Automatic annotation (TrEMBL):
It comes from Marinobacter gudaonensis. SUPFAM superfamilies: Triosephosphate isomerase (TIM) (SSF51351). One of its GO terms (molecular function) is triose-phosphate isomerase activity. GO terms for biological process: gluconeogenesis; glyceraldehyde-3-phosphate biosynthetic process; glycerol catabolic process; glycolytic process. Pathway: Carbohydrate degradation; glycolysis; D-glyceraldehyde 3-phosphate from glycerone phosphate: step 1/1; Carbohydrate metabolism; erythritol degradation; Carbohydrate biosynthesis; gluconeogenesis. This is Triosephosphate isomerase. Its main location: cytoplasm. The gene is tpiA.
Amino acid sequence: MRKPILIGNWKMNGSLQANQALMVRVLPRLRMFRKSIDLAVCPPFPYLFQVRDLLGYTGIMLGAQNASAFVSGAYTGEVSATMLQEMGCRYALVGHSERRALFGESNQEVAARYRSVQSVGLTPVLCVGETLEERESDQTALVIEQQLQAVIDEVGLTAMASGIVAYEPVWAIGTGRTATPEQVSAVHQQIRRFFARSAPEAAEDISQTVRIIYGGSVKAGNAYELFSLADVDGGLIGGASLHADEFGTIAGALAEASGILEGECETD
Ligand SMILES: O=C(CO)COP(=O)(O)O
């Protein structure tokens, strides 16, 4: 049984005031789902401390948007996984397409960051996905398998079972252009099959237990349809996670799509 998970990636947005306002409005909406689905928000680094306090004991978790591959030392501008853990993070994204495309993070670098996140006990959320050009030239499976293989080479397949994979087609991020349910389903199944092929002896375990979530223009209006897909275990939400009502509705869609009935949700 794969527990559904919803993660808000705020990207480089927010301010002390805006974060507070968002949390005050969204937390009551999220709290009712906290037992049935895992929920997390990933603010920019400087706000981790503030958001940790705002989350308090709601059961909603804190995540970071990246983590250094290094433990400590002369790496100006980097933030170590240990620091994130000390700030109360439970999750860290690695390999977001914006990091890969805008900041030149290679598959190997992403894999090293994955390792450092996992080594301090945080759950890495490995983002994978193809560009439009890659999709149109039938490279989707190849590109994603290379992104996954680099991490398998670094930490081993078994270690990936406790991580999360986020499929985010680059062409669907922030564009309002969502992948169709058929496209999402096909890639999520491909990822599971790839895991199964990579370790025939442990295939059933990893390919069926690893959580694979979808990201890319998920909105209140399309969340339910995407989350109803058998191989989709939740979502990684960008723009819509900055709007309390919409993020709350998306959380409700995930609970509903996962068969969690309203009566099972907490209302306190
Ligand atoms: O990149 C994303 C989440 O990490 C998706 O962003 P949008 O939801 O804004 O398309």
